[in-house]
Description:
Number of helices: 5
Low-confidence stretches: none
Helix content: 25-40%
Largest sheet: 4 strands, antiparallel
Number of domains: 2
Amino acid sequence: MDKIDREILQVLGVRGRITNTELASKVNLSPSACLRRVQELESSGIIKGYRVVLDKEKLGIGFIAYVMVGLSEHTKKSQQEFEAAIAQAPEVKECHNVTGSFEYILRVEARDLKHYKVFHTDVLGTLPQVATITTHVLMESTKDERQ
């Protein structure tokens, strides 16, 4: 990767749907050279894909929380069973295994507090691997590079 590749990634990170012609102009390349570089970044796996950014509010998502989960057993089997269960929960948008005083951080989206309570009680609360649940409700995001 060189300076131009990094510039391409920066522009695509902000505007993933930019046309190749516009992108080429922004990074001072010909359209064909720019396209070759983007294709190489894709084929090498540096660019893993493109996604759409959704307006959560317009979709009825009014509640976002980061949930810290501690497991009752610290075994590979317990982790695998927990991860399999979480993979089935549509409210969980991210699941990260971390070090520290708990094992997982979940990013959970729900319509509202009532919907989150159902998830908390009927999903997390029924998993035998779960020992502790700590919820941090998102009030505002002053920086979120996913948007």
